[in-house]
Amino acid sequence: MAIKYLDSNGVLYLWQKLKAFVSSAISNKVDKVNGKGLSANDYTTAEKEKLAGIEAGANKYMHPDSHPASMISGLDAAIQEKVAAAGHLKREIAAALPEPSAADGNTIYMIRKSSGADGNLYDEYMLIDGAMERLGDTAVDMTGYVKESDLAAITNGEIDEICV
Q1: CB under 8 Å to 106, separation ≥6 — which residues?
Q2: Of 3, 13, 141, 160, whose CA is between 20 and 30 Å from 152?
Q3: Cβ neighbours for 89, distance < 8 A, ≥ 6 positions apart
Q4: Percent of residues, the chain, with pLDDT higher than 90
Q5: How far, CA to CA in Å, does 67 sit from each of 54, 72, 132?
């Protein structure tokens, strides 16, 4: 069974249906009645008097859209210090594993496998607690991923059924 997806034609068709729906909804909205303010005085006189007694702009706080990092004193220096002190991993293709005493603790050593198309598969090793440990390999298992041949665009009729 094909997996359904929305292609560009389906998106356009759905967009047209949405625009028609919104246009219909707007045409049925209730318009504002001039001179009426709120359609009815649904709040109490006491609440109305309380609101009338608040000075214009009182307690008005405008929260900025963003905060620069410079607002936090010493943040930039602290970040730079932590980044500089952190180990930076790198990869190295090697013909053979180095002895643990000669290995760099921040290097993933890639040893070419004999299998694999175009010789592009590697076992990955790293120095961990004084020993060279295999982390895994570079093989990628695509089992379970959808193939383009498994896809079928959803039809306008199916979109109509969804949009009921």
Answers
A1: 87, 88, 89, 90
A2: 141
A3: 106, 107, 108
A4: 41
A5: 30, 9, 45
pLDDT per residue as tens digits for the range 72-91 = 888 888 888 888 888 889 99
Burial class (CB in 10 A: 0-12, 13-18, 19+), 68: exposed
Q: What is the DSSP letter of 111?
A: E
Which has the closest alpha carbon to 133: 118, 151, 111, 149? 111
pTM summary value: 0.43
Residue 29's contacts (CB-CB under 8 Å, 6 or more residues apart) are none
Task: Specify whether the CB–CB gap between 105 and 90 falls below 8 A.
Answer: no
β-strand pairing of 151-153 with 3-5:
parallel
Amino acid at 161: E
Max CA distance (Å), the chain: 88
Amino acid letter, residue 46: A
